[in-house]
Amino acid sequence: MLTKRLIACLDVRDGKLAKSVKFVDTKDIGDPVEKAREYYRDGLDELVFYDITASSDRRRILLDVVEAVAAEVFIPLSVGGGIRSVSDATDLRLAGAEKINVNSAAVQRPALIAECAEAIGSQNLVLSMDIRRVDGDANCPSGYEIVIDGGRRPMGIDALQWALDGEKLGAGELVVNSIDADGTRDGYEITLTRMLSEAVRIPVIASGGAGTPEHLLEVLEAGKADAALVASMVHYGDYRVSELKSWLHERGVHMRMSW
Fold first, then answer.
1. What is the pLDDT along the chain (259 residues), one digit of tens a residue?
2. In the chain, where does DSSP find H-type helix?
3. What is the SS3 string spanning 70-93?
4. Which ranges of 62-189 would DSSP assign to H, the alpha helix?
5. Which of 104, 126, 154, 244 could form an S-S bond across to 148 if both were Cys, CB 3.0 to 4.6 Å?
């Protein structure tokens, strides 16, 4: 049986930890380096770092913040934001990132996925997808659309088709960011997560909406996700990483435990 993962997400804006609701109303809430250290010591499986304005600002990611976070954690660190080239990906790997997340630039130039996969290996390349629910039409028959630039620019691209294309081009993992569920703490977008999990053969990470341990259990079981990403519920101190993993373990979810 494959081990499920608990992943914490650090959304970083101007070097500070930030949190939004549905990709808007973003507030600074703390120090990303401090939080990274706390979650690592409490048994986190993996950490995701997003520079959330790098793409929309048309700039490179903040390498100094990535380096500071990488120095504090000895678990897989996955980094995204503003990655437009193999050179960007390589620089992040040198800064301490194990996995590279591509998103907006890959939607605009899909060949970026294949180029990065060849350069750093598919196992180190993650396709991060920001997705909004829409009325199904010829462009988006699944009822879900890809949005880029931090939720600012809808692309008229079907999320299911983009997931399949990303896998074919060489992505080794998908992050499914539901814009509709983001920051609400009302639960993950189960229909979307299950649809993509059943369609691809690579691991799927569910993102957006976690508020209670029950939400994690639902997305890992009913949503068929390989990993659950959390943010608000740990950033604000409602739950600790260790207690979430223990709670899931006690309910039969195969987690990597420290004992």
1. 679 999 999 888 877 887 767 776 666 667 888 999 999 999 999 999 888 666 556 656 678 888 988 998 999 999 998 899 999 999 999 999 999 999 999 999 999 999 999 999 999 999 999 999 999 788 899 999 999 988 889 999 999 999 999 999 999 999 999 999 998 999 999 999 999 999 999 999 999 999 999 999 999 999 999 999 999 899 999 999 999 999 999 999 999 886 5
2. 32-41, 63-70, 86-94, 104-108, 111-120, 159-169, 190-199, 213-221, 232-235, 241-250
3. HCCCCCCEEEECCCCCHHHHHHHH
4. 63-70, 86-94, 104-108, 111-120, 159-169
5. 104
Q: CA distances (Å), 136 to each of 27, 34, 40, 156, 190, in order? A: 32, 43, 41, 11, 17
Catalytic residue among 11, 45, 88, 182: 11
Q: Which of 45, 130, 149, 158 is catalytic?
A: 130
Judge contact between 132 and 154, C-beta under 8 A.
yes
Using CA atoms, how far apart are residues 143 and 133, in angstroms rounded to an integer?
A: 6
8 Å CB contact between 169 and 117: yes
At 207 the three-state DSSP class reads strand
Short-list 7, 185, 163, CA closest to 98: 7
Specify whether 130 is catalytic.
yes
Q: What letter would DSSP give residue 4?
A: B
Do the beta carbons of residue 66 and residue 72 sit within 8 Å? no
> Is the four-CA dihedral 123, 127, 133, 137 of positive or negative sign?
negative
For the four alpha carbons of 140, 19, 249 and 34, in that order, the dihedral sign comes to positive
